[in-house]
Amino acid sequence: MRIAVTGSTGLIGSALVRSLRADGHEVVRLVRRPARAADEAQWRPEQGYLDSSGLAGCDGVVHLAGAGVGDRRWTAAYKRTLRDSRVRGTRVVAEAVAGLATPPRVFVCGSAVGFYGYPGSRPVDESDGPGTGFLPELCQEWEAAAAPAQDAGVRTVFARTGLVVARNGGAWGRLFPLFRAGLGGRLGDGRQFWSFIALHDTVAALRHLLEAGDVSGPVNLTAPEPVTNREVTAAMGRVLHRPTLATAPAPLLRLALGEFAGDVLGSARVLPGRLTESGFTFAFPRIDDAIRAALP
């Protein structure tokens, strides 16, 4: 296959590119700077530009680019950055895909379990509607921006990804150093559900969606057994053989993180209904195994 990827330097994108190339697939990386190699094509989402010649002959496009949700406090300015990086970028890619004489068979667009908001301990899947608040609104706009590709008849999948267990990025990239130092512990009361997925399974699921010809629309990329933050804390202690006595009270998190604290303290028990139904098998379905898989 020939696959184009945005966000190829990010946590998930870089792992996906390595996996595809290891199996002999051709990958075109969409980069924001001028292309320097035959496997690169430039795009400038802020200016609405994409060199569509890089998409020519592609069997699929995987769009993962976007500013990090947890990288900064959610000021009004950074909220605009989060929205623009996803909505505008998705629209640019979707329009380029739709404009090709021979479009790719599939467009896999990144999204997030933030779509569901914080429904508490009630399990939710793709049949559930959006929650309320900034993240659910952002995810709805993000997915809606892919309409040009859908309208052109391209099979479009929204990969609503949970918390990726990896040592070099995302939420777990921040947790590992703390727990290794014996400073890890529960966040808030620890009863909030975290819908996690191992990085290995994230990449495998994206590749599965590229080839699952009858799957379109939203697909949750989460492990089948979400766990509470208290259970995550215990698992980190077991796997790393470290104490987990520290706690971060909810008021302190809100003071330190601002509005983003709601994402840390909010509970979302998201199940991978459509991914499981499509025949996908998780390599690391349980939290202890996912943590071990992330270790060197």
Structural features:
two-stranded parallel ribbon, 11 helices, 16 strands, alpha/beta, 38% helix, 8-stranded mixed sheet, 296 residues, single chain, Rossmann fold
Provide structural commentary:
The chain has 296 residues and is an alpha/beta fold. The protein has a domain at 2-165 and 195-222 and 269-282: NAD(P)-binding Rossmann-like Domain (Rossmann fold, 3-Layer(aba) Sandwich), CATH 3.40.50. Helix content is 38%, strand content 21%. It contains eleven helices and 16 strands. The strands form five sheets. Strands 4-3-2-1-5-6-8-13 form an eight-stranded mixed beta sheet, sandwiched between helices. The chain has a two-stranded parallel ribbon with strand order 7-16. The chain has a two-stranded parallel ribbon with strand order 9-12. Strand 1, helix 1 (11-22) and strand 2 (26-31) form a beta-alpha-beta unit. It is globular and about 60 Å long. It starts with a strand and ends with a helix. The model has no long low-confidence stretch (mean pLDDT 94).
Name the helicity range. 25-40%
- CATH-defined fold name of the domain at 2-165 and 195-222 and 269-282: Rossmann fold
The CATH class label of the domain at 2-165 and 195-222 and 269-282 is: Alpha Beta
Class per helix and strand makeup: alpha/beta
* Helix count, DSSP H or I runs of 4 or more residues: 11
Give the helices and strands as they follow along the chain: EHEEEEHEEHHEEHEEEHEEHEHHEHH
Write out the CATH superfamily name of the domain at 2-165 and 195-222 and 269-282.
Answer: NAD(P)-binding Rossmann-like Domain
Detail the poorly predicted runs: none
| Main sheet specs | 8 strands, mixed
Question: Strands across the major sheet, in which order?
Answer: 4-3-2-1-5-6-8-13
Second rung of CATH, namely the architecture of the domain at 2-165 and 195-222 and 269-282: 3-Layer(aba) Sandwich
